[in-house]
Specification:
alpha/beta, Rossmann fold, two-stranded antiparallel sheet, 6 helices, 27% strand
């Protein structure tokens, strides 16, 4: 079966699993996941499961990515901070929806590979930083002080204060919080400078490694 047909079947599965956001579904339909997984796993690219990538990391399950993006309520005017570039797949889906993506990855090899693929795919609205994701977008170009939306693709033991500080008024952040084996997906919203928190179910991500 052609990758395009497999992609359409995956999007249909996401719809059946409760993903209704048309922008998110369209982005999944137009993003070739096979380009962001190792060659030996490309036959599994459109299975709804996490897959191993370089540096003992993983590319997240498509459904989990879709849940996180739907929870963020993305718009074409948003500037988004992504913590954990990984293979670049989630970055590509995001960049298909929003104005700009600022993506932080602590592993240089992963970031450089993702940058190469994303630039080859024609994305010009993604900026990269190699560093500690828990610090957010510190001292990086463009010099953003806050973001409309923040997505964290690694499990944190606690919510990093540097990230909540970089969330704009009216903004939304999704982050897995908990121990290494299993976390809760948490949604944070900021209104009048006050953070509100709600749980969005269980999840399992690689740990957020930080020097702080």
């Amino acid at each position: 079966m052609r990758y395009e047909d497999q992609r359409a079947l995956l999007v249909r599965e996401l719809e059946l699993q409760g993903i209704k956001d048309e922008r998110v579904l369209r982005a999944f339909l137009n993003t070739p996941r096979e380009l962001y997984v190792p060659e030996e796993h490309q036959s599994l690219a459109y299975h709804n499961r996490a897959l191993p990538i370089a540096e003992r990391q993983t590319i997240s399950q498509p459904l989990m990515v879709a849940i996180m993006l739907q929870t963020l309520e993305l718009t074409p005017e948003d500037t988004v901070l992504e913590i954990g570039t990984g293979s670049g797949y989630e970055t590509a889906v995001l960049a298909s929806i929003v104005k700009e993506v600022c993506s932080v990855e602590r592993l240089e090899n992963l970031s450089l590979q993702a940058q190469q693929i994303l630039k080859k795919q024609g994305f010009r609205n993604v900026y990269f930083r190699i560093g500690d994701g828990a610090l957010g977008w510190e001292k990086a170009f463009p010099a953003y002080n806050s973001f409309d939306k923040i997505i964290v693709s690694a499990g944190a033991r606690q919510i990093p204060s540097r990230l909540t500080e970089q969330l704009a008024e009216g903004g939304r952040m999704v982050i897995p919080v908990g121990e290494q084996q299993q976390q809760k997906l948490v949604l944070l919203t900021k209104k009048d400078g006050v953070l509100s928190q709600s749980d969005c179910g269980l999840c399992a991500f690689v740990p957020l490694v930080t020097s702080t």
